[in-house]
């Protein structure tokens, strides 16, 4: 069992605990987490699916409070801001599953249509409470995912995809049946249905010289409206969001490879080495070389 630790405001899949276990072909991680104190406000650039198995508490997602108890299942989109507050009596234990948004788009290509889970985000609640029977069924699926993930046997990623797809479908059925959203209030922005496609495009093309105007042209959107929607959904402006994606990739390369820092700068999409150094330090608080040293030190400490 792994305890959640404190992370910076923006988290990514390539954390110290998970970097060497994640397949580059299927970015996915699952643990049983135990919370004994408040997990502070944070956001992340991946999708997160959790299932409470013990204890009680509450979580605040984009300013709305939801209770947590055994059977509570939560599905968080990239950059949704949230915090978790466990109850005072005993630790809040939950399966915590993290994966890249590519999974939903790849599944849609296979005919499952799972990318519909991404939008519109205003329409469906992010947290539901399963019935006792469904809770036991979904809990067994989560346990199966954890077993497959740590086992690393043949066809691991394929089985993980199948089990994850079923959990997501069960969750979506439940939240649609529970939804009390006012149809007049669920439309959101005129671009709400496309904003997650834009974010996904940025996640898969950040190594290219992307511009806001060029992105707007690709999706046939107004640049000003697109800029406002990105800020509203992620809390970041276009440039900062692009830098987040590039620096995230740089962090994973620094942590998991011996690639030269100079080469990393251009590999992740920066046009100049000085710009990379300046922006990396702004976002991470240290130079790339120091980040690598700290990561290696932490990894060696864990190993011993």
UniProtKB/TrEMBL annotation:
The keyword Transcription applies. PROSITE patterns: HTH_ARAC_FAMILY_1, HTH_ARAC_FAMILY_2. PANTHER family: ARAC-FAMILY TRANSCRIPTIONAL REGULATOR (PTHR43280), HTH-TYPE TRANSCRIPTIONAL REGULATOR EXSA (PTHR43280:SF2). Coiled coil: none annotated. SMART domains: HTH_ARAC. GO terms for molecular function: DNA-binding transcription factor activity; sequence-specific DNA binding. This is AraC family transcriptional regulator. InterPro entries: AraC-bd, Homeodomain-like_sf, HTH-like, HTH_AraC, HTH_AraC-typ_CS, RmlC-like_jellyroll, Tscrpt_reg_AraC-type_HTH. It comes from Paenibacillus flagellatus. Keywords: DNA-binding, Transcription, Transcription regulation. Residues 196-294 form the HTH araC/xylS-type domain.
